[in-house]
């Protein structure tokens, strides 16, 4: 009988999960120095961002600290603000962006002795400026003298707690506040401690750098869009594989494993967030992630999971029947939700405020409700409540942004602008039955409308049922085992 490892090797070789995209193929070319400077974007892109920061701070100076090394045998991942301006993947780095001198300096520890253990490391030698595109790269010890020379200047530094992998700013803020308020903890964030040291420099005024960087991050560049497009493609392939594999008797975590296989196969460096795989009554919870429930015949499955691909992420959700076929009641529940969801999506336009988009969407929703034949009063009540939430909404957005973080920085504008990238994910629920439906797509605003980056993942019932009739990873493993 073949071993488990043999089965996995067979799956890697035999299961077609889609070819890599053009962007992925291009980005798979070897970078200048593996694991020390990102291969996601060229140095010139980061230099352009630093130039925008220089313009924004005027005669001031921006100072940022990178993430510390992980206290575990785990890969290092840079924090988002530092990565956005440098692409440098080295622990305890410090960046100085001088608006007056119009140049940047990177301070990094000398990790040259660790190369034998970890492989190539970036360290302050003559090659570092070429690799990073940063004018000067010095040993971290030299930062003390540079910091003291900032006396009398305005210094901008991030004041928001740093965001690492699988996180968003509100997660980091909430955790930092809880730690500081905890009488048995009381620690300030790294950013608070760093800012206090900068304030100790004579005649120094410290200001928040985050609004400046966030303003740049709000509009995605072509390079960023290509990376998010690839993260979305991988997310979609993972969902397709989970849909093929799903069947009653499996546990939620088995579907998670299908997606993680696909994520790894296509070069993801991890998950964008924990897997939200919910079946049956767990579908009511928007962030359910226990993953241990058994799929039952007659259940719906809500699958919300996406990868972290070269620091950029996605966020896609689909709903499908555990046994591969929608029941008549599930068809009614799912179909009315889908038509109302599509009424919102098809109302999206550039240079228009979200509230105007919602107003147009509600008119379409009213028409959908009038023309739909309901047989179940609970479903009609859920749909009516769904529409009324939009009719009375005062929200300033349609969903949440996506980028370096799964809940990325705000749009930074009262209207949608080309280059804005966000998801919509409204939920429809039947409260007393503990049931919910929620789809989610990644939408890029363009000059003429929008592009749905996740449109290839089926949402129509015939397409879902056709896909679920195809063999999945478990079927391939069973065939080999026999």
Plain-language structure description:
With 482 residues, the chain is an alpha+beta fold. It folds into two domains: 31-217, Creatine Amidinohydrolase, Chain A, domain 1, CATH 3.40.350.10; 258-481, Creatinase/methionine aminopeptidase superfamily (Creatine Amidinohydrolase, Alpha-Beta Complex), CATH 3.90.230.10. Helix content is 40%, strand content 15%. It is built from 17 helices and 18 strands. It has helices at residues 4-14, 22-27, 43-57, 80-86, 115-118, 128-132, 143-148, 169-181, 190-199, 210-217, 222-245, 252-265, 328-345, 354-371, 377-391, 461-468, 473-481, and strands spanning 61-65, 94-98, 103-108, 136-139, 154-157, 205-208, 270-271, 276-279, 300-304, 307-309, 312-313, 317-321, 400-401, 421-424, 427-430, 435-438, 441-445, 450-452. The strands form five sheets. Strands 4-3-2-1-5-6 form a six-stranded mixed sheet, sandwiched between helices. Helix 1 (4-14) crosses helix 17 (473-481) and helix 14 (354-371) runs antiparallel to helix 15 (377-391). Mean pLDDT is 92; it is low at 1-16 and 22-34.
Key phrases:
Creatine Amidinohydrolase; Creatine Amidinohydrolase, Chain A, domain 1; 15% strand; four-stranded antiparallel beta sheet; 17 helices; alpha+beta; disordered N terminus; 18 strands; six-stranded mixed beta sheet
């Amino acid at each position: 009988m073949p071993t488990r490892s043999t089965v996995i090797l067979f799956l890697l070789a035999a299961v077609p999960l889609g070819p890599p995209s053009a962007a992925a193929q291009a980005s798979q070319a070897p970078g200048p120095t593996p694991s020390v400077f990102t291969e996601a974007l060229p140095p010139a892109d980061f230099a352009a961002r630093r130039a925008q920061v220089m313009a924004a701070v005027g005669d001031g100076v921006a100072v940022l600290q990178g993430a510390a090394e992980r206290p575990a045998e785990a890969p290092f991942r840079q924090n988002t603000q530092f990565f956005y301006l440098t692409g440098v993947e080295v622990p305890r780095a410090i960046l100085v962006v001088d608006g007056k001198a119009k140049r940047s300096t990177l301070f990094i520890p000398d990790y040259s002795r660790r190369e034998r253990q970890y492989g190539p490391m970036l360290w302050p030698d003559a090659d570092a400026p070429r690799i990073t595109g940063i004018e000067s790269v010095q040993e971290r010890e030299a930062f003390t003298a540079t910091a003291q020379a900032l006396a009398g200047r305005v210094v901008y530094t991030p004041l928001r707690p740093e965001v690492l992998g699988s996180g968003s700013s509100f997660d980091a803020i909430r955790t930092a506040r809880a730690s500081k308020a905890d009488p048995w903890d009381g620690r300030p964030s790294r950013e608070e401690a760093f800012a206090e040291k900068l304030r100790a420099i004579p005649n120094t005024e410290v200001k928040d750098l985050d609004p400046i960087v966030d303003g740049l991050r709000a509009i995605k560049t072509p390079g960023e869009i290509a990376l998010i497009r690839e993260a979305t493609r991988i997310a979609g392939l993972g969902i397709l594989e989970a849909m093929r594999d799903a069947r009653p008797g499996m546990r939620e975590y088995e579907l998670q494993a299908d997606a993680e296989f696909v994520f790894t196969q296509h070069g993801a460096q991890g998950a964008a967030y924990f897997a939200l795989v919910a079946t049956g009554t767990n579908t009511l919870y928007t962030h359910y992630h226990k993953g241990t429930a058994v799929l039952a015949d007659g259940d719906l499955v809500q699958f919300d999971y996406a990868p972290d691909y070269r620091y950029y992420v996605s966020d896609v959700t689909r709903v499908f029947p555990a046994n591969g076929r929608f029941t008549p009641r599930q068809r009614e529940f799912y179909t009315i939700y889908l038509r109302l969801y599509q009424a919102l999506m098809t109302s999206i336009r550039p240079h228009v405020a979200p509230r105007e988009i919602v107003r147009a969407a509600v008119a379409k929703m009213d028409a959908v409700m009038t023309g739909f034949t309901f047989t179940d009063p609970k479903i009609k009540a859920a749909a009516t409540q769904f529409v009324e939430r939009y009719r009375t909404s005062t929200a300033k957005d349609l969903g949440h942004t996506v980028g370096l973080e799964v809940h990325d920085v705000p749009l930074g504008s009262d209207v949608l602008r080309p280059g804005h990238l966000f998801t919509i994910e409204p939920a429809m629920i039947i409260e007393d039955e503990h049931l919910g439906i929620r789809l989610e797509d990644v939408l890029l605003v363009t000059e003429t409308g929008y592009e749905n980056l996740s449109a290839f993942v089926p949402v129509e019932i015939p397409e879902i049922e056709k896909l679920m009739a195809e063999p999945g990873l478990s079927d391939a493993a069973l065939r080999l085992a026999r």
